[in-house]
Structure formats: structure tokens, C-alpha cells
Write a structure and sequence with these properties.
The structure holds two protein chains of two kinds.
Chain A lengths: L9 E8 L4 H14 L3 E6 L9 E9 L14 E4 L3 H9 L20 E5 L4 H7 L9 E4 L1 H8 L6 H11 L6 H12 L3 H4 L2 H14 L1 E2 L1
Parallel strand pairs in A: 1-4, 4-5, 5-6
Antiparallel strand pairs in A: 1-3, 2-3, 6-7
Chain B lengths: L9 E5 L1 H12 L3 E4 L6 H12 L6 E4 L3 H14 L3 E5 L1 H7 L3 H6 L5 E6 L13 H5 L6 E4 L3 H18 L3 E6 L7 E6 L2 H8 L30 H30 L6 E4 L6 E5 L3 H14 L4 E6 L1 E3 L3 H8 L4 E6 L10 H11 L6 E6 L9 H16 L8 E3 L5
Parallel strand pairs in B: 2-3, 2-4, 4-5, 5-7, 6-7, 10-11, 10-13, 13-14, 14-15
Antiparallel strand pairs in B: 1-8, 6-12, 9-11
Helix pairs in contact in B: 1-2, 1-7, 3-4, 7-9, 10-13, 11-12
Classes of the chains: A alpha/beta, B alpha/beta.
Chain lengths: 212, 403
Amino acid sequence: MTVSLDKGTIEIRWHGRGGQGTVTAAKMFASVAVKKGFYGQSIPMFGLERSGTPVAVYSRVSKEPIQRNDPVTKPHIVVITDPSVMVFLAASQGGKLPESIPDPRAGITDETVFVINSPMPPQEAKKILGLEGKPNKVCTVDATKIALEEIGRNVPNTAILGAMARILPEVVDMETVKEELEESFGASSKLRALIPANLKAMERGYNEVQCA
Amino acid sequence: MAVELIKERKAVAMTGNQAIAEAMRQINYDVAAAYPISPQTELMGFFAEYLANGLVDTEFITVESEHSAMSAVIGAAAAGARAMTATAAQGLLYMYENLPIASNWRLPITMVLVNRALSAPLNIHCDHGDAMTARDSGWIQLFTENSQEAYHSLIMAVKMAESALLPAIVNMEGYIVSHTIGNVNLLTDAEVREFVGESDWRKNIPHPLLDTDNPVTYGATALPDYYTELKYAQHVATFEAKDHIKRVLEEFNQLAGTNYQIVEPYKLDDADFAIVVMGSTAGVARTAADQLREQGIKAGVLKIRLFRPFPYEEVADALKHIKAVAVLDRHDSMNGLASPLYQDIASALYHLPERPMLHDFIYGLGGREVTVEDMLKAFNRLINIYTGGETRDRFVEYLQVRE
């Protein structure tokens, strides 16, 4: 089951932490969408946040020009890049999260798809989200582990994008992400050297993601 | 010579700050002077990168304050250079005493104002408080909805300023536009350079200071015998500027395939109720109007692109047949009546034999998120006041306050 742009604008909410590259991942996503000929948008919620504080980022992708720029409240896709969100959710036992952490369950419908950076199997993630028995598709991938093994740093973006390629193949694919990496990393030889490792991480994200 | 980078038009994903830096590169200003302030800092950083990579010929003056930034571009423009600066919030207030000098000297400077709430309390996010302080400074002011419009508007503003011989501000909302990534269709470098024309210090302004064969004085006093006449000349120029601005918009529309107007009506032809708004909220308001139309309520939106000189005739023409209008102001003038845009709209409608009921909503202060639900709330409150279902004590209300 994939998400399609045929029904209109796809809205995405990303949950991460400052400094872990969630904003970068969302920007790459918008950039890849534009490269594919769509309209793409990513709205980082900036503030006086410090590195490590929970952040929400909103993205939209559409075949038509995007009119709205308000926060996404009814996401079609929720991407959790920060693995600790699942830990907090498990600890809350279906209750409220601490106020500082945006709740990934807010505004979801039966159709909302989850892409989660976590070592846990998707069935367990689905249970923790309180979605057992619901039609929602919940996918997990250990993007942090992949990033550490392939890139040597905790930058789970490309592995997450690999998982996204399963959910939203119309928008995210290997070739376009490669093109994007070459453009954004291209000016610096140090960054350019990281492109193959990032592509490997993306490929592994695509292959290793599991859904329930 | 500036390097030619973009040889074919292309669609890219850019934040507002990136898009403005790209326009600055393509325009290839003679002089830029700026002092960093959030959310403008990143924009000048992107431009400094172009400069360091040898892509532009611009003399970039890293001044020690905004006051000096404005002084530097005034000096440069008076000499005959094509000059720009960028700032936000208190940075604009710090340069303020020079703003009316730039406009009375008729210097076609362009300035990007990355709209940010004024202190206090300290806040780095968007509202229009900074722009509103400059509304009587004699500068042209454009508002923009997204990074695409910001990019286009700076290119247009150069030509508007040089045609009208008045300085121009391009407003780009902090974070919500400056840091949001979206589609930007880039023109080629050659197209931009042809549109703005080659900068020539002998021709950019009629009487450049550097023209030593024809010496002139800038900054002379004008006492009671001449002050009025020099103000009147500026007064006339401000009224005439609208025609220059319209012509530049038309020329730009032909080049870029856009449909920019100084005011932009959305579904107003048969509308009963309308929202008037500037900047990034316009799309959210249009979405709300569409949702109301699905319920059979004839709603529309008027987006103000040109804020100064204020397009009175065009506003009156667009709103004259509407039953009730909600003006959305992203600033509070604290004047005991209502906010700046409301007062302009009210003035524009006053001379009509029949005019719509008006109501003012203050919204989006200090970066408060503006949602479709907020716009629906504004429409519904307006409709209820109009139909008598609800009453009002004042013309102005806060839309999003927690009491």
C-alpha cells in the first residue's frame, strides 16, 4: 500500500530533535519533490530552541501549486526520526506525552501512515501507538543504526528517505535523491566523499523497512 | 564581470532567504551594505557566499550597525550606484532616521525587510510591526506571499524604484517565508539582467554626485522658503509612482508569465463577504474562502501586494459591492481606533456612496501560527456581526488571543 498524489495534496509531519537533521531531511524531501516536477513545501518550526529539543516540521507535496502554509494538523504521513519518541510513548502507556514533545498521534486518521526510526518491529510500534486492529500502516526502520554503520555519524536522514521511497514512490526515489545529494554536497569535497555512504544508507533504508 | 550561472529557466526548491540571495546575485548590485539580525542573517550569509566565490561584482560593506547600512547605501545611491540593504524589526528602527532622507533625495535604493515582530517583548518571529513603522517614510512597499514572490519582487523592485525614483522595500515574512522551502521558478541570469538593465552610475539617477562636470548638492538645508516645495515634489512623485509600478508589473508579467497586480482579488466578483490580507496568510485565507463556498457562503479574498503608495482606487473598485469586509492586520498600532491596513481600507472606501461594513482583526503577532480555522473564525464573526447575530463593542478585535 503506497500513498498517491492522485487524491490531492499529501501532508506530512516530521517529529525529530534539533540537531539530528530532521529539518535537513524535510528540506531534501521538498527539493526531491520539486525535482520530480511536483510542488513541494517544507516548513521548519524555528524558534529559540536549542540542539536536542523536540521539533516538528511540516511538508506538503502536490501536483497543484500549494496555497497553505499553516501547520499540518491532519497528516497523511507521520515520520518519526527521533527514536526516543517511541520510548516516551511506550512509557506513557497510551496517555499523554510530556508537553514539550509534539504528539505524533495528533490529528491522525485511519489512513495515516507511520514511518518510524526505531529498532522495534512494526507490530510493537503499532501497539505502542494504540493502533492495534486499526487499518493504519506502521513501518519501522533502524535508521540510526544504518547511519552509524554506513556514514559513521547519527544522521538518519537518508535511511529514512529510503523508507519513504517505499511509501511515496511517486516522489522519493534513489536516482532523484542522488541528484539532490550531488547538488547540495557538490561544492565541498569533504561532503562529496559522503555521497556513496549516504546512498548506501538510503538503499538499506529501502530494503530494511518493515511494515505492519 | 559577474559569472553567468543560470542559463536556462528552472524550477528549484528554495527558502525565501535563498531566493532573495539568488535574485541579488542575478541583479548583481553595485553596492550592498548590511548588519546581521535574525531572520535576515542567513540571507546575507547566502549572498556573502556568492561574493566569496567570485560570482558577483558587488561591493559588500559589512557595516557596524543598521544606521550605517542605510547611510552607506544612501551615499552609494547618491553617487549613482545601484545599492541595496536588508534588515528586520529593531534593525529597521535603528536605520529609521535615514529612511525619509533616502526618499526625499529620490534615491532608488532597494531594501529587503524580513518581517519580524518589534521588541518588547523580544521575539524573532513574524508580524508586520516593522513594516508599519515605515509606512509614512516615503518608500514604496511591496508584500510577498512565498519565496517565489519574494524572488520576483526584488527583481521588479529595482526597476520600480529606478523608474519612480523612490526607494522600495520588499517585505518577506520572517521564518514563514524566509525559512520555508518551496518551489521557485528561476529566470535566467541574462533575463534578469536585461529586465533590470545594466547599472550605469551616470544614468541610474538624474544627478549623480560623482558627475563632477555637473556638480550638485545633496543634503542642503531648505528653510521655510523652500521646504514646502521640496515636499510637494516628493508628494507628486509618490502619487505618480503607482503608474510606474503598474507598468513594471505588466512588463514583468510578460517576461515571467505571472499575473501580478497591485491588488489581487480572489473570487470577489459575486462575493458577499471578504477578507483583506497581505503576505503569506493570503493562501490560507483563499483556502478558507473555498471551504465557505462549498457551504454556499459567497466568500472572497483581496490580497494587497502594493502597500505604499496605497492603491486607493483599486481597493475601492475591488470591494465596493461587498456586504462586509474583514481587514486582517498583522500589527497593532495602539492608537485607540484600529490598525494601519484597516485605516487605509476605510479611507479608500469612505468616498463611495455605498460601502461595505468593515471590521478589523489583529492576528499573527510575533509568529502566532495562522490556520485555515483562524480564517474561518474571522469570516464567521464578520458574517454574524453583519447579520446581527452577534454584536461588537469596537471595530478592532484580536483574532487569536487567549484570555
